[in-house]
């Protein structure tokens, strides 16, 4: 009789040390574990181990003596950290003729290093890092109820052939080239739309397909932002929330049309308070992952849009399909996002 094997996941040294630092900084074991992505039981066991041994490293185990000397081991780690993008084979050749690529890989893995696809994130300069950290400190004490009253907004481009991930289909071998089993691609497609939308805890706001001529001077400017977004969509939605007895505050990023004097005057004249948002910080706006969900729904359509009109229709239908409960989970993560940006000293977070 075949027995089921239990798969164990080994957390790397860096994650373990971050967890210990958070607990020593005053976080509960459960809260610290959640911030670094560690299960409660694992977090408790790691803290108990640290209390007993004073370290988070694994204790020595029996087995065949290692071929990699301590000197080689240090060289592997130093070279890997110095040149992050160097392939393993090149890294191996630069260290010694007496070490194999497999040994280098195993050595790195033992220290928590693995070859991974690099995340693409917005560039954050030192001044922006400071502002992100300051913003986190200002909002560290905000409650879930306060975050639930924020109207989060953003713009997003959607274009034909927007297939960043793999698309899986169910087919047999002879159906490989059937129409329903193919994903059409568009060479440098210029067919795209920009949409604006907003969300608040428990509600989806309106989705607006922005209209502008394009070309030089034809993009989104202050006049179009006020007329198409603020007057047409935000204003009515804000008043609707007020009538329901809520106390909303509006969030927008630092785009030029958002920071313009005319925009700020319009918001002030209509009694719409603003929530300050740090620069280059999509990870601190819970509507960002909603865009990923929206595009996922569009990509999953059986018949992909092939024109601007079809793309607009697909975007509107996808917005209607989004579940409010799925949106709420991103809004509910705001306290954790604040803690994450503080833990990163204003740097990039996992969100």
From TrEMBL:
Highest taxon listed in the record's lineage: Eukaryota
One Pfam family of this chain: DDE_3
Domain Transposase Tc1-like: 74-139
Region Disordered, residue ranges: 52-73
Residue intervals of the Tc1-like transposase DDE domain: 217-303
Stretches with biased composition (Polar residues): 52-61
Single GO MF descriptor: DNA binding
SUPFAM superfamilies membership: Homeodomain-like
Record-level GO BP terms: DNA integration; DNA transposition
Full protein name: Tc1-like transposase DDE domain-containing protein
Lineage: Eukaryota, Fungi, Dikarya, Basidiomycota, Agaricomycotina
């Amino acid at each position: 009789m075949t027995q089921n094997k239990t798969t164990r996941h080994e957390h790397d040294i860096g994650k373990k040390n971050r967890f210990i630092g958070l607990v020593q900084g005053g976080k509960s074991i459960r809260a610290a574990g959640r911030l670094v992505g560690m299960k409660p039981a694992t977090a408790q066991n790691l803290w108990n181990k640290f209390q007993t041994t004073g370290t988070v490293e694994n204790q020595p185990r029996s087995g065949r003596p290692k071929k990699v000397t301590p000197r080689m081991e240090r060289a592997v780690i130093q070279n890997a950290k110095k040149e992050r993008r160097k392939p393993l084979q090149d890294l191996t050749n630069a260290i010694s003729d007496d070490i194999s690529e497999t040994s280098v890989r195993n050595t790195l893995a033992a220290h928590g290093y693995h070859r991974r696809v690099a995340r693409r994130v917005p560039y954050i300069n030192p001044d922006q890092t400071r502002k992100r950290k300051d913003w986190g400190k200002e909002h560290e004490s905000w409650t879930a109820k306060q975050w639930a009253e924020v109207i989060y907004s953003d713009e997003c481009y959607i274009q034909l052939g927007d297939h960043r991930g793999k698309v899986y289909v169910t087919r047999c071998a002879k159906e490989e080239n059937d129409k329903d089993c193919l994903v059409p691609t568009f060479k440098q497609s210029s067919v795209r739309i920009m949409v604006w939308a907003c969300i608040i805890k428990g509600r989806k706001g309106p989705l607006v397909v922005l209209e502008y001529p394009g070309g030089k001077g034809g993009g989104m400017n202050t006049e179009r932002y006020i007329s198409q977004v603020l007057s047409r969509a935000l204003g009515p939605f804000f008043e609707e929330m007020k009538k329901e007895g809520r106390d909303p505050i509006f969030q927008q990023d630092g785009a030029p049309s958002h920071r313009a004097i005319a925009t700020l005057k319009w918001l002030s004249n209509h009694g719409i308070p603003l929530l300050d948002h740090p620069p280059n910080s999509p990870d601190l706006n819970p509507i960002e992952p909603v865009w990923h969900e929206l595009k996922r729904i569009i990509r999953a359509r059986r018949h992909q849009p092939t024109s601007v009109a079809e793309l607009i229709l697909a975007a509107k239908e996808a917005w209607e399909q989004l579940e409010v409960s799925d949106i709420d989970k991103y809004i509910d993560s705001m306290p954790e996002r604040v803690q994450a940006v503080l833990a990163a000293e204003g740097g990039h977070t996992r969100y």
